[in-house]
Amino acid sequence: xxxxxxxxxxxxxxxxxxxxxxxxxxxxxxxxxxxxxxxxxxxxxxxxxxxxxxxxxxxxxxxxxxxxxxxxxxxxxxxxxxxxxxxxxxxxxxxxxxxxxxxxxxxxxxxxxxxxxxxxxxxxxxxxxxxxxxxxxxxxxxxxxxxxxxxxxxxxxxxxxxxxxxxxxxxxxxxxxxxxxxxxxxxxxxxxxxxxxxxxxxxxxxxxxxxxxxxxxxxxxxxxxxxxxxxxxxxxxxxxxxxxxxxxxxxxxxxxxxxxxxxxxxxxxxxxxxxxxxxxxxxxxxxxxxxxxxxxxxxxxxxxxxxxxxxxxxxxxxxxxxxxxxxxxxxxxxxxxxxxxxxxxxxxxxxxxxxxxxxxxxxxxxxxxxxxxxxxxxxxxxxxxxxxxxxxxxxxxxxxxxxxxxxxxxxxxxxxxxxxxxxxxxxxxxxxxxxxxxxxxxxxx
Length: 445
Ligand code: HEM
Description:
CATH architecture: Orthogonal Bundle
Oligomer: single chain
Structural class: alpha+beta
Radius of gyration: 22 Å
Helix content: 40-55%
Strand order of the largest sheet: 1-2-7-4
Strand content: 5-15%
Mean pLDDT: 94
Bound molecules: protoporphyrin IX containing FE
Number of domains: 1
Order of helices and strands: HHHEEHHHHEHHHHHHHHHEEEEHHHEEEE
CATH class: Mainly Alpha
Shape: globular
Number of strands: 11
Largest sheet: 4 strands, mixed
C-alpha cells in the first residue's frame, strides 16, 4: 500500500513532514499537545516514521495492555550499532518477556535495600565540592551522580579506581555516538564499517565491553555476596536452568547505561528546580525530612509520602520521554480506526499528563495531587508501560528520593533562575535550558 493510501485510513494529522520533525525536535511537549488540540487526541504524525499517536487514557490503556504478540521489534540500524543486537531492544513478544524476567526483578524490591547507601555516597561525592556562597549549574554534578549510581549499583564498580576506568570508557563511548558525523551516517542508514566515525565508535564500544566482561566475571566469582544488580542478573536462570549469555548481559547493561543516565540527570535538575521555585512545597518537604536527619536510613526516606509525591509530580510535569513507541506486528483497532501491521503507534505522556480531567491546573507543580488520589498506569506514564516498561523505574524513583533528601538535609540553596524555565534538547533528551542554577547558602547543622 502506498503511504498516501495508508494515511487516508488513519486519523488526521499535520501534513508537512519536515516541519513536524523540526517542531518535534525543538519542543515535543507543546508540539504534541498542540496536535492533540487541533486534530483531536488521536492523530497521525509523519516524523521518521508514520505514527498514530494518542494521550487519551482509554487508548493508552489499550496500548500498554495489548496481548504479548501485538508488537514487533522497531529495528533501526543506528540504535542497533550503539545498543548491540543481543539485548531486549531487539526482542519482542514472548522472547522479550522471557529475557526481561531475568532482568527486571533485580531493579526493584529488596535489591534496593542495599543500594541506598551507595546512592547517598554518589550524591555526596558529586556535590561535596560546593561551599556556602558557591553558585553552580545542577546539571554538572547531576551528570556525575547519575553515572556513579549506575556504575556502583548496576555494574558493581565498588572502588574509586574501577569507577574512574569506567568513566573514561563511557565518555569515549558517548562521544563516539554523539559525534555529528556518526549521527548523520546512521540517519542515512549507511551500514558499512569503514567510515572513521564508525571505526572510532567501534573501538570505544569494545573497550566498554571489555570492562563489562571483567565486571561480569567478578560478579560471577562473588555470587550474591555482591550487592550490585549485575551480580543478580549473572546468577539468574531461565526456566530451563540456563543463564543469560555474556554478550546479551553486556548489550543489556549498555542499554541500561544509555537509558538510565541522562533520564536521571534531567529528573534531578527538575526536582531541585521545582522545589526551589515553589517554596511552599520545599517547606512541607523539609517538615518531613528534618526529623529524620541527614544520616537517616535511605529506606525510611523512600517511605515518606510527601517526598514520594514530589518525585511523582516532578516526573509528571516534564516527562523526559514524551512518548513511547511500538511497531504493530498485528493490526490494531484504535477507536474507529483499523491501524495496519507495520505502522507505529505511540502513547504520549506529554499529552496524558496534561489531561485536565486527571490533572486540574496541570501546568502547576502540586505534589498534593498524588496524595489525594492514585493514578492508574494508563493515567500516569513517565516510565512507559506494558511489556517494555522501563526496568529502572523503581531504581530511579528511589535514586531521586535519596539524592533530594541527601542534598536538602545537608544544605540550603536558592534558585538563581528567574522567570519561566524553558526547555532545550541536549543529546536525545529535553532538559531545563539553564541546567538549573543554584547558590549554596549555608550548610545545615
Ligand atoms: C527518571 C528516570 C527514568 C525515566 C523517566 C525513564 C523512562 C523510560 C521510558 C519511558 C522507557 C520506555 C518504556 C516503554 O517503551 O514503555 C524506558 C526504557 C528503559 N529504561 Fe528507563 N527511565 C529512567 C531511568 C532508568 C534507569 C535508572 C535505568 C536503569 C538503570 C533505566 C533503564 C531502561 C531500559 C534498559 C529501558 C529499555 C527497555 C527495553 O526497551 O527493553 N531507565 N525508560
